[in-house]
Amino acid sequence: MKKILMIALVFLLPQLAFSQTAETKVKRIRQLYNEAQEAAKYKDSEEWVEHGAWSLKFESMINYAGGGPVKHRTEILLTSPYEADEPDHPRFNTVIPRLVRETIERSVTIYREWLFDPETEDFIFCYQRVAGYNGPKEQRLYFDKGRLIKAVPASIDENWMEEPSALIEKAQAFKEMVRTYNLIE
Question: pLDDT tens for residues 109-131?
Fold first, then answer.
């Protein structure tokens, strides 16, 4: 009996520790998300500088053969790297992505947000919502070091929802766009 209990503990303790660690990370991600949303309220206002709410915006309208017109809007909310506040720092006057908002309008409307950690610049969260034929569906995905740690709901049956690997790839593309933007003076 003691052996069975010991074996069970050996397998359950790491799971319990991961669960607590994941929940701590999710809590921090939610806090960073709320902070980014608060800063985003000031974009396009006179107070945008004080709140670090500057952005890059992209808009396109494409008519796909067989698919019809697709309107695509992407806005990247930017922030300064924490360590780049000093004028002699090599990253002074550079920006990093903080929050990306994407809307795709076609036969369905797709909305996504990507959140980046302002300290590490890592992609840490994605919210996606599809208003389609079967009504609206949404999902929240939490990441740590390029790995999915939590999804709510865990899975979703919707063709227009992106898989975690595709979301990670797009997050990398957004970071690369901003890195390239920093090269333009």
Answer: 999 999 999 888 999 999 999 98
